[in-house]
Design a protein that fits this description.
Chain lengths: 223, 223
DNA sequence: CGCGTCTTTGAGTCGCTTCAATGTCTGTGG
DNA sequence: CCACAGACATTGAAGCGACTCAAAGACGCG
């Protein structure tokens, strides 16, 4: 990450909540690193419905898939006030030349991202509303913990219930009713600004997708 | 692709239809290259429902995301009789050392895969059954064309309507009814073994996600 | 020719959406 | 410090899209 930042040109940008960093269809020739705050990647369909693909937390790389296509496939929007730094694609090119191990790690991170998308895809396509919502909240917590080891079962977030609905693929009204069901069953606490996982095991079983464990054995990577 | 094959040890394997190459949860220390036939990647959830994440066609790399985790996240199953060749992860490691440009191209392919998953995710979460099915069939055709430029609007496939249902996230019964709606509206022909896109524009508009164009400008990659 | 796989059809039910309205919080200006 | 406005959360009722259950037809393979 520090190495990546060394390729930037001090190109830091501050975003206010709801401000768009990059819209679908715009040409894009690089990606961004999220330094502070939360952002999200979304796709708006021809039928007008919006879906939040992923929520980004500090340390995440934004807009990487856009490197492969001429026009940005997704819209990147700030969920809270946020700070990002732009990284030109030439930085990635250099990385593959001078730091093959880092490049390979970046490759592995992309595979992890694929797995997260695969899990979300399976859930959205084959799970009920309450299962989907359980999965979404669980994934948020998992990622909050990963970015901040030592975090307990409570994490803070800037999400509205409408954001949650767009993440879980349902109506805000039904998201509200489903949150209440999860509350009544003693699985979570959900309030403005923060959430708590009360029963991680039950929640994960409800979500229906197992926790993934990242490979630690990396001897096959270049040095 | 030829370079990748040079890393294999003649480790070719033939699969019969419905045979599983690699099941969810199994440890896996490499990936595969599909030489002939079609396979698919699927996830089965705790509630028992199966979802087909992606259909693979000859030339596709199978099980790449598994490199990042200790246990295979998905099940790879043959949709027709198929031939694959195993590629150990050490091959990938070497690639990043000796062929940075190829490694970078592999990285870009992973980003394309991410975009395909993002599109599918948005569709499954935010589109109606007929829109989802239109999108699925369109993506199959797009990929068939990409693997075989010069192909017209008809492509052959080994998919049953149940496979189609698992791809589009719906019941086989409803998939059947939805296929018939698409037929009645003159958008497609769907029969055992082959399919034809009758009205690509209308189908794409129905699907609600624009066609993506791959970057041709690759000057920023290492040589 | 017959059996298994796949496709098609119909009826009843339920999960989720839509529409409409009320209640509650948060920040901001007077 | 209070009043107000806008954003967000909550509630209820009606409607529809997709599922479930059940059964019959068609295809293709041995």
């Amino acid at each position: 990450m520090a190495l990546l930042q060394s390729f930037e040109g001090g190109n830091v940008r501050k975003l206010r909540r709801h401000e768009v960093l990059r819209a679908e269809g715009e040409p894009a020739s690089g990606f961004h690193l999220l330094l502070r705050g939360w952002t999200a990647s979304s796709i708006t369909m021809a039928n007008g419905k919006r879906h939040l693909l992923k929520v980004h937390m500090p340390g995440d790389m934004l807009g990487m898939p856009g490197l492969a296509v001429t026009r940005s496939p997704d819209t990147i929007v700030a969920l809270s006030s946020a700070v990002v730094t732009a990284i030109p694609r030439e930085g990635i090119g250099r990385l593959f030349e001078v730091a093959p191990r880092i490049a390979a790690l970046l490759f592995l991170i992309s595979q992890e991202e694929r797995i997260m998308l695969m899990d979300r895809l399976a859930m959205m396509a084959a799970a009920s509303a309450i299962e989907r919502l359980a999965g979404v909240i669980l994934q948020l917590h998992d990622r909050a913990v990963r970015n901040n080891p030592g975090l307990g079962t409570t994490f803070s977030h800037p999400l509205t219930q409408e954001d949650l609905a767009d993440l879980a693929g349902m109506t805000p009204i039904y998201a509200n009713k489903t949150v209440q069901r999860l509350r009544e069953e003693g699985l979570i606490i959900w309030e403005r600004g923060s959430a708590t996982i009360l029963n991680p095991e039950a929640l994960r079983e409800l979500a229906g997708i197992p926790a993934r464990q990242v490979t630690r054995e990396l001897g096959w990577l270049p040095l």
